[in-house]
């Protein structure tokens, strides 16, 4: 038996791991104590990589649909057929008839898929951005004047952390990247304060200094109240800002009494939090899918979180929020000024079938895919690693749309409900079979990029994802640039191209396994950008208008989604995490539902059935359903027409529902 040092790619925390291997069998995964970021921590999801690799339903051969049935075939036959059919669609209907969905943590494959998308020249691009995350880049764009201002909390030095709609003890923080979340939250609480705002007393809330449980979809009101209080007494005067008067007017209605009424949180609890915020040196705030999946309310909540951090002096300061150091390096090398995005936002034309749904960051909303297929505008879809059936909205309309595509090609490692709908199944290497670098080259204030060699050889006919898209591009006659030659390049050759021009060379990163991230706080390039812009934009008109237009959440029972310890979205079903539907004892009694019995949850768009878990950790009026299950698919409750007109984000949280015995 031998051990290979690697890193986990189940989630964005990308913890360092040691993988024990005997022959072609993966025996065990454990934490790497020498890793500078995770320091030996692993979770159940990461330790399940051996089971993922040896899954009984793993895909080992390319498949092609023949006479309505998927059949094993060769790469040559599969890619020839796929290219022929794609070329015919492009020749007859134009490049826009081909759509792409991007969802993979494989760096080389992701970049080659991007190159193919650019070569085809189609505007039809989809990703999880409009499923769970548009609010964060939107606020960076509107408030910071640059979408690259994607801040992360300085967890090493933070002494006041507010977690809104995020449960990092279970989820690892979604986009926070927090290995050992239990230890991290405990450490911050010991040296300062941690506050959780969530309608459930989550695993993280149990470790916190304080917890507020507002009605679903009213987080924005809590933050608006806090901003109002800080504007009265507590704002850091040396922070450059603009729009102060407009902001003050926008939050003026959110008095203590009004906010307590909207949120159903006692006034003394709100006042206690306001006092703690006022006394803090700076306030770091992290939001999660509990915020970002609430569509327009998510935009407003994320905006007010940024505003509160700006007013308390947390932006680009130790113990607050730090920013991606890569842009500073670009300035050092190229000497260009960062572009200042318009206060109106970075939007573009959307799909023809839904003209009201504009593009954001050059992406179309996932919600429009069924309409584009029905209108004949999209006839082929290339799915880059996504579990579409368990992630895209309104499953009842999505599945027929996928079935009506002339071409539906998907990369995958395990057979699932999405691959069963495909015309071409492209089996790619799993995380232990390929060399790789971290896709997003920022993990913490210490580590910038990681590298792993392959741990085991690929099973069957699995190929590198980059190779699949390079071969497909060649068959279509496209110049795919210098990323890699499918005849001669290795995985490492492609990764070396991706790191060309970086602070650390590929050879250096490969030799050590990671590269340290230089991150002085404050970062001069951030301060220079904000000064040139005229200060942080506190009151973008688009957001002020959305806040003003919000109506009180009035439904007696609302659904909120959540993540689970042993599941991540559509992955890791084999770990047996059940789709428990959390309801309060009062709501269970009112609906005649007892713990452990089947319960049906209905919305205006559909229904699902799961197992009731009557739990006093959740407040009355809330139904909590986990992401990513096929049998209790939360997307069946969503409505593809219920979208935020600004970003195209579908409402996945705060949906009115009713409960019925299953």
UniProtKB/TrEMBL annotation:
Assigned keywords, A-Z: 4Fe-4S, Iron, Iron-sulfur, Metal-binding
Domain 4Fe-4S Mo/W bis-MGD-type per the UniProt entry, residue ranges: 1-57
One Pfam family, short name: Molybdop_Fe4S4
Molecular-function GO term, any one: oxidoreductase activity
SUPFAM superfamilies: ADC-like, Formate dehydrogenase/DMSO reductase, domains 1-3
Record's protein name: Molybdopterin oxidoreductase
Alphabetical list of InterPro entries matching this protein: Asp_de-COase-like_dom_sf (IPR009010), MoPterin_dinucl-bd_dom (IPR006657), Mopterin_OxRdtase (IPR006656), Mopterin_OxRdtase_4Fe-4S_dom (IPR006963), MopterinOxRdtase_cofactor_BS (IPR027467), Prok_Mopterin_Oxidored (IPR050612)
Protein family: Belongs to the prokaryotic molybdopterin-containing oxidoreductase family.
Organism per entry: Mycolicibacterium sphagni
Matches recorded under SMART domains: Molybdop_Fe4S4
């Amino acid at each position: 038996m031998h051990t290979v040092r690697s890193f986990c790619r189940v989630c964005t925390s990308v913890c360092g791991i040691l993988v024990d291997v005997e022959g072609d069998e993966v025996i065990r995964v454990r934490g790497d104590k020498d890793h500078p970021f995770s320091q030996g921590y692993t979770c159940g999801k990461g330790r399940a990589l051996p089971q993922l690799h040896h899954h009984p339903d793993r895909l080992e051969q390319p498949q092609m649909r023949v006479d309505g049935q998927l059949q094993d075939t060769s790469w040559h036959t599969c890619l020839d057929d796929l290219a022929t059919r794609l070329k015919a669609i492009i020749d007859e209907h134009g490049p826009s008839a081909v759509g792409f969905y991007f969802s993979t943590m494989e760096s080389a494959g992701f970049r080659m898929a991007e190159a193919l998308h650019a070569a085809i020249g189609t505007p039809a691009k989809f990703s999880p951005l409009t499923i769970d995350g548009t609010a964060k880049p939107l606020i960076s764009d509107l408030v910071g004047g640059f979408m690259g201002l994607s801040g992360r909390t300085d967890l090493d030095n933070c002494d006041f952390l507010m977690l809104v709609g995020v449960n990092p003890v279970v989820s690892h923080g979604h986009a926070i990247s927090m290995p050992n979340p239990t230890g991290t939250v405990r450490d911050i609480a010991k040296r300062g304060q941690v506050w959780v705002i969530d309608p459930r007393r989550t695993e993280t809330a149990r470790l916190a200094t304080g917890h507020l449980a507002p009605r679903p979809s009213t987080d924005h009101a809590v933050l608006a109240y806090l901003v109002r209080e800080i504007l009265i007494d507590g704002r850091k005067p040396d922070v450059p800002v603009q729009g102060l008067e407009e902001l003050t007017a926008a939050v003026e209605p959110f008095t203590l009494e009004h906010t307590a009424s909207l949120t159903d949180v006692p006034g003394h609890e709100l006042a206690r939090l306001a006092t703690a915020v006022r006394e803090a040196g700076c306030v770091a705030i992290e939001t999660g899918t509990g915020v970002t999946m609430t569509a327009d309310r998510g935009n407003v909540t994320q905006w007010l979180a940024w505003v509160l951090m700006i007013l308390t002096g947390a932006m680009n300061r130790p113990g607050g929020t730090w920013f991606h150091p890569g842009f500073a390096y670009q300035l050092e090398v190229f000497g260009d000024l960062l572009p200042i995005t318009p206060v109106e936002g970075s939007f573009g034309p959307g799909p023809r079938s839904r003209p009201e749904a504009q593009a954001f960051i050059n992406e179309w909303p996932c919600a429009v895919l069924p309409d584009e297929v029905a209108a004949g505008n999209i006839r082929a879809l290339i799915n880059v690693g996504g579990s579409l059936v368990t992630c895209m909205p309104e499953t009842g309309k999505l599945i027929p749309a996928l079935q009506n595509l002339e071409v539906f090609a998907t990369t995958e490692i395990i057979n699932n409900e999405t691959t069963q709908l495909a015309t071409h199944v492209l089996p790619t290497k799993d995380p232990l079979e390929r060399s790789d670098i971290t896709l997003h080259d920022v993990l913490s204030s210490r580590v910038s990029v990681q590298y792993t060699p392959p741990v085991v050889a690929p099973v069957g006919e699995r190929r590198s994802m980059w190779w699949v898209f390079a071969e497909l591009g060649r068959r279509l006659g496209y110049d795919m640039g210098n990323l890699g030659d499918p005849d001669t390049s290795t995985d490492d050759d492609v990764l070396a191209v991706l790191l060309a021009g970086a602070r650390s060379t590929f050879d250096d990163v490969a030799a050590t396994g990671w590269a340290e991230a230089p991150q002085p706080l404050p970062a001069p390039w951030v301060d220079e950008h904000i000064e040139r812009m005229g200060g942080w934009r506190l009151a973008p008109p688009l957001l002020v208008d959305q806040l003003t237009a919000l109506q009180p959440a009035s439904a007696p029972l609302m659904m909120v989604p959540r993540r689970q310890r042993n599941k991540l979205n559509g992955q890791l079903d084999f770990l047996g995490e059940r789709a428990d539907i959390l309801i309060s004892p009062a709501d269970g009694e009112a609906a005649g539902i007892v713990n452990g019995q089947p319960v049906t949850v209905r919305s205006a768009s559909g229904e699902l059935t799961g197992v009731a878990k009557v739990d006093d950790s959740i407040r009355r009026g809330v139904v909590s359903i986990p992401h990513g299950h096929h049998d209790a698919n939360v997307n069946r409750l969503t409505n593809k027409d219920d979208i935020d007109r600004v970003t195209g984000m579908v409402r996945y949280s705060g949906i009115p529902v009713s409960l019925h015995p299953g």
